[in-house]
Each structure stands twice: as C-alpha cells, then as structure tokens.
Amino acid sequence: MAITKERKNELVAQYGEWMKQSKALVLTQYVGLTMKDIDNLRTKVRENGGEFHIIKNTLAKLAFEQAGYTVVPGQLEGSTAIVCAFTDAPAIAKQ
Fold this sequence. Notes:
By secondary structure, the chain is an alpha+beta fold. It has four helices and three strands; from the N terminus they run αβαβαβα. The mean pLDDT is 90.
C-alpha cells in the first residue's frame, strides 16, 4: 500500500526532529539481521539514550537536505537504518 503525501510529510518532519535533537547520527545497513537482532539492537541503543529506526531513503534524503546536511551519493541506498544518539554518542556508536 502506498504512503499518502500527508504521511510522507509527517515522516520527513519526524526525521528532521531526530536530527535536531541528536548529538550524533549513524547511518547503517541492516542487511542480514533478523527481527530478533534488530529488536536487541534497539533495546541496547535505547538503554544508552538513543533510538534505532529503519528509514525510507527518499524521505530521509529530503529531511537531511532540509536540515542543511549534504547527502553523499549512494549513502541512502538499500536497507538503511538511522541511529540517533540523544545523550551518549560514543556508547551508541559501539552498539
């Protein structure tokens, strides 16, 4: 089912809010991870003051550009997730 334009705008706004609040952002590919692996990773990230979210690449690109970030070609392709570090960036990156 297609996402409505209204929902797309909501997602871009949410991504932008995460970017504003984060001390660090980590883009990653989650290929090969099971749902159990992803859930465990989300739990560890939350315990360290962050969030792990699977993102829609085209909407993330819009959010990054609106926030003034440069998107490197090829950076937002495939199965992409974003890790937002709201408190302890080094601890989040180690997860």
